[in-house]
């Protein structure tokens, strides 16, 4: 087969700075959806892949999890980091989370934590999350009339929720937060304090593993009523989870559970500030909160991508894809697909239907989606009725990342009851 030509616009996927520049990013994605919806990307130091930018194609690929596997390339990393990660796994020290796994193992591992995220668990948790939302909005009032909404509020609220669900002691929350930022924000200078090489990145993983090894030991000895105990004592076919699977479970929950939600909360507030008419509609009609939260999640799309690899020769939109080749699911693009969303670049708190792919789709559909929705619902239901005025007090700043990201800073001036 001859090598496909590369559409230059597809270079955005391997360029973290593109994600810190909404206009540039969306110009490229809009062009790709219209002209090269299955785009070949060959841009070292990454191995080549096909970028999928249409909503329908992303859904179809995620739906067919026998043809499209998460192994061996679940997300975009450089070839060097990829090889290093695999060596580490072979040595028993790598990361193999739910997003790395395929069925049947994936289904069994997912089931271990799943009860903690079901509607009943969410209902039990709601009182505490509402109380916490009030605590953070009170804090916002107390530190007013200005704050950095990201670092003062949006980071800490979901961090607190997920760490409490896991059952970790409050004094460890800042450490977990730092580790998560280092792991997910590696492309951004502000977050990446340890360096970019695979060896330097491994030190972050080792810190996570050491912390969680102690936690596993203590929960096996003294089980408590929390998610950490469920993971530590989880069994598959009668056997305890392997050390790698146990530690990886904590890592995915601890990390996926808060930076994502922080990005949706802070980007959601910015969208309301930039669209005062929508803020007013929501203030007047709190029944719109459910659709408003969904729109904030579509609008911000905190998780930029996951990948799948073809188990056999196939095609997408008529483009042949060979067994072993990988596809990049461009969620940010799918969520602005003009064939699915009316006026996709309009922020509309009453958008319905809103079949966004920000939580993915199919067997890997975000385990924490109901939790993220509830947290956002609680926070904005507390904040909006108390908000007398709000405006920007400086430039909002987006993180440079190719994976999970959103606002790093959102300086605001406000008055709160
Ligand atoms: C707005 C916030 C969030 C967004 C946008 C988000 C997005 C995503 C996406 C796109 C996936 C991959 C889905 C796929 O491959 O089809 C995912 C998976 C996952 N998310 Fe979330 N997430 C959010 C919040 C959370 C929270 C609060 C948790 C809590 C623990 C969480 C835990 C997970 C886990 C464990 C997986 C792996 C599921 C699997 O592979 O079976 N996420 N999330």
Automatic annotation (TrEMBL):
Oxidoreductase listed as a keyword: yes
Presence of the UniProt keyword Lipid metabolism in the record: yes
Source superkingdom: Bacteria
Family label: Belongs to the cytochrome P450 family.
GO biological process, alphabetically ordered: cholesterol catabolic process
Name the UniProt record assigns to this protein: Steroid C26-monooxygenase
Named cofactor requirement(s): heme
Pathway(s) where this gene product acts: Steroid metabolism; cholesterol degradation
GO molecular function: cholest-4-en-3-one 26-monooxygenase activity; heme binding; iron ion binding; steroid hydroxylase activity
Keywords: Cholesterol metabolism, Heme, Iron, Lipid degradation, Lipid metabolism, Metal-binding, Monooxygenase, Oxidoreductase, Steroid metabolism, Sterol metabolism
Pfam family, one: p450
């Amino acid at each position: 087969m001859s090598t496909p030509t590369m559409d230059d616009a597809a270079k955005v996927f391997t360029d973290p700075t593109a994600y810190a520049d909404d206009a540039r990013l969306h110009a490229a994605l809009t062009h790709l959806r219209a002209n090269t919806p299955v785009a070949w990307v060959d841009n070292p130091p990454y191995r080549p892949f096909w970028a999928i930018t249409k909503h329908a194609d992303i859904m179809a690929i995620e739906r067919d999890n026998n043809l499209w596997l998460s192994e061996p390339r679940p997300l975009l990393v450089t070839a060097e980091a990829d090889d290093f990660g695999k060596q580490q796994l072979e040595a028993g020290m790598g990361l193999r989370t739910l997003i790395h796994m395929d069925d049947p193992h994936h289904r069994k591992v997912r089931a271990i934590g799943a009860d903690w995220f079901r509607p009943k668990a969410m209902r039990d948790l709601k009182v505490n999350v509402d109380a916490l939302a009030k605590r953070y909005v009170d804090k916002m009032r107390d530190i007013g009339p200005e704050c950095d909404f990201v670092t003062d509020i949006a980071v800490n609220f979901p961090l607190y929720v997920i760490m409490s669900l896991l059952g970790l002691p409050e004094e460890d929350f800042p450490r977990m937060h730092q580790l998560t930022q280092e792991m997910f924000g590696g492309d951004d200078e502000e977050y990446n304090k340890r360096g970019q090489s695979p060896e330097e990145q491994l030190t972050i993983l080792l810190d996570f593993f050491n912390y969680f090894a102690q936690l596993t030991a203590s929960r096996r000895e003294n089980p408590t009523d929390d998610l950490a105990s469920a993971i530590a004592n989880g069994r598959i076919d009668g056997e305890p989870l392997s050390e790698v699977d146990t530690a990886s479970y904590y890592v995915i929950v601890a990390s996926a559970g808060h930076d994502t939600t922080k990005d949706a909360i802070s980007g959601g507030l910015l969208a309301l500030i930039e669209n005062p008419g929508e803020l007013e509609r929501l203030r007047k009609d709190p029944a719109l909160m459910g659709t408003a939260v969904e729109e904030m999640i579509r609008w911000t799309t905190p998780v930029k991508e996951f990948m799948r690899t073809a188990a056999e020769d196939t095609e997408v939109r008529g483009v042949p894809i060979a067994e072993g080749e990988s596809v990049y699911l461009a969620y940010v693009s799918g969520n602005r697909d003009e064939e699915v969303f009316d006026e996709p670049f309009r922020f509309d708190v009453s958008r319905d239907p809103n079949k966004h792919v920000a939580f993915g789709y199919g067997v890997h559909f975000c385990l924490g989606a109901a939790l993220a929705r509830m947290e956002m619902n609680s926070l904005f239901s507390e904040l909006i009725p108390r908000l007398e005025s709000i405006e920007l007090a400086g430039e909002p700043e987006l993180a440079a990342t190719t994976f999970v990201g959103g606002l790093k800073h959102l300086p605001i001036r406000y008055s709160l009851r």
